[in-house]
Amino acid sequence: MKIDFPLTHDLEQLLELAERAGIPLLEAVQAAGGLTPYAVETRYPGLFG
Q1: Interval 17-31: pLDDT, tens
Q2: Pair 43, 36: CB distance under 8 Å
């Protein structure tokens, strides 16, 4: 199966794509979507300052 993933730091968006593709995700992995603000802030410091 081929999934076209966008270039993004939005973990919730990527998890949603995986879910729609039928990829089973552990509950702990599903909760990773809450880390999106940290992923963006780490990559782009001060963006949301």
Answers
A1: 999 999 999 988 988
A2: no
The closest of 21, 18, 48 to 30, measured between CA atoms, is 18
Q: Per-residue DSSP letters for 18-33?
A: HHHTT----HHHHGGG
Q: What are phi and psi of 44, to 5 degrees?
A: -130, 75
37 close to 49: Cβ distance less than 8 angstroms: no
Residue 46, classified by CB atoms within 10 Å of its CB into exposed (0-12), middle (13-18) or buried (19+), is exposed
State pTM to two decimals: 0.69
